[in-house]
Amino acid sequence: xxxxxxxxxxxxxxxxxxxxxxxxxxVVGVVxxxxxxxxxxxxxxxxxxxxxxxxxxxxxxVLVWLFVVRPCARLxxxxxxxxxxxxxxxxxxxxxxxxxxxxALELVADGRRFTAWGVPADPKxxxxxxxxxxxxxxxxxxxxxxxxxxGAASPRRKVEAQTVxxxxxxxxxxxxxxxxxxxxxIAEQSWDPVAVGVLAAALAFLVVALVV
Length: 212
Prior knowledge:
alpha+beta, 3-stranded antiparallel beta sheet, 5 helices
């Protein structure tokens, strides 16, 4: 865990934005839940339920939740929170020195690179910093894309590393103008006890089912 703080770093990173993740992650989660119920319900109704099957399905659901549904990024007034499968990263705007988006949203702070598992890059678009498309930026910022009438319906928002990277740098610049370096410098990465506990319980259930 790396931590950098200024004298007034007692205030924790305030996260007031919604979770940013691709819509496909939610769809995959729903599909997996439905498929799992189709397997679990008949198995539970039969006498002498197959514990190995049940434990395997439960573990598969936990893995889908951890690696597909759970990962996201949350933008706040003072910084960003990256929710990854087993860890959570909290970064305030002043501590971020570089923003990348080659394969996923990547933030460099204190010489360490933090990747947002829940914000993948769009391979069809140039990575951030090279001909970033204005329309993509406005999808995140909520502005009106170039060439679109003010009263026209806005395009469907798409969460991708390129657009979120642009928003991150915009908020970093806004924070510098607003507070001039007075924002607390926080760069923390910590294990999430709930995520670790759920994974450990699912693995233990499978081990017990195999032994029994």
